[in-house]
Specification:
alpha+beta, Aminopeptidase, 6 helices
Amino acid sequence: MTKKYGVGKMIYQETKKTIETDRLLLRLFKEEDAETVSMMCNNYNLYKSTLTLPYPYTLDCALSWIATHEQNFEENKRYEFAITDKSSGQLYGAISISNQQPFRNGELGYWVAEEHWGNGYGTEAAKAVIEFVFNEKNYHRVYARFLKSNPASGKIMVKCGMEYEGIQKDHVFKNDSFEDVVLYGIINKNEGQEEG
């Protein structure tokens, strides 16, 4: 099934649980990804820019996190994807979205390994996942939050068409201080419209 989104296209393959974009393949993580994930995430710069990533990030952290993905997907609780290069398969990061079914919305979260920052992978993956949940999972709304100290994450949200919704003051206690969290969201404007 091919869906148009922005300048590129999003192809969702339901049987494989993959999303393809111009440059990326979003797929479920595999156990063999755990070592790479732990190396990428055991990075203080990544930790300080994310809401929930632990630090230090061990191999056991990666293995236990990856072990939940298939079941979360099957039970429509959360959709978690590895962000990989479509041609080489190289792992760049992760993107996930919760599924709050009664409210038809979900929170988008992502991280890209520091050595891949600035290449647009987060934006390309986020656009594809938003399109996926709007068209395939019947979401009405997607929202995302970022630490005020990490405006680069907010730029991804803006590039995806999300709008500023507010600030949660002193919402997170991290690194011995409270941090504001900035909230963005997007409504499915094509909801209920037939493709044609």
